[in-house]
């Protein structure tokens, strides 16, 4: 969807939020407001959002990668400069009955020492000063909506406004100097925030559903973790517990590395978890076209070159990277901060007196994720050759 189309989608969502009820009148302190006055204010805000904007006006005059992202669920404002996230400011946003409008906008005006006009009584005008609820800076982005300071700093971090974005005074003054008219502004509601920490570890947060409009499931979280390649390293039980807690605290999962074997970059990742580098057994074996044999009872995996213990995470078998050379006859390891590279060693004579018997791929009965101890392969007369990539949750 292009920027212009996304703008329209944002407008529709904003309009839905605006016209869903007499939101200002729901405030006990403002019960004297006439419904017709509220409707007029809502219509003006929607009309402002629907103004025809040329494509070249949808970005800042100097397209330097500066943009503002506002997550209403986390109550945080993110500033990007030159395409990099440089600031995270705490905010207060619209209360349940006065939801801040989501959508794609741009900064349309900036003002120092703004004047506040009481929407309930237009004759009540408050000039700049300590009693002004807008503080000392105004950054407008959509009709009557804007980012501003506050004379009630205790409200920051809550849902307290009538739709605008409140900031601590020092924060809004800092932001004011960093953005220009035309800077893109994106307002969204996302309860689950997933990102990489500075060291590359995948971390996620889950926030309360203050607007009661975004339920989350374990399946959804798994899908998002899958995008980073670490879905196997957070149990379904842990995910459900985090959804139930919805405390907004970070959960660090694991650090993924791009994995290259014999010149082939795999879809699966190498993973650093609790100080151990894990490698996926079957994707690596497939890349080298190497038969792999497993003994599920002993928790072992075997190739023509050697034997190693396996650790099972969500039905997927991994080995410790320290065992890779002995099991696969490869050498290598961590190549950079985000990649691991392995190459086949020169072939050596294989001496396998017989193939291990009664050996099957580790099955779903072992889901603990605890590393199993080495043990002997069983010999009971049946042999199963396994050489296929383990599939997610299969």
Task: Explain this structure.
Helices cover 19% and strands 30% of the residues. The chain is α+β, with helices and mostly antiparallel strands. It has three domains: 3-188, Beta Barrel (L,D-transpeptidase catalytic domain-like); 192-252, no CATH class; 255-394, no CATH class. The strands form five sheets. Strands 1, 2, 3, 4, 5, 8, 9, 10, 11 and 12 form a ten-stranded mixed β-sheet that branches. It has a seven-stranded mixed β-sheet with strand order 22-23-18-17-16-25-24. It has a three-stranded antiparallel β-sheet with strand order 13-14-15. Strand 20 and strand 21 form a beta hairpin. Helix 1 (3-18) runs antiparallel to helix 2 (35-49) and helix 4 (218-228) packs across helix 5. The longest helix is centred in the first third of the chain and has 16 residues, at 3-18. The chain starts with a helix and ends in a 50-residue tail after the last strand.
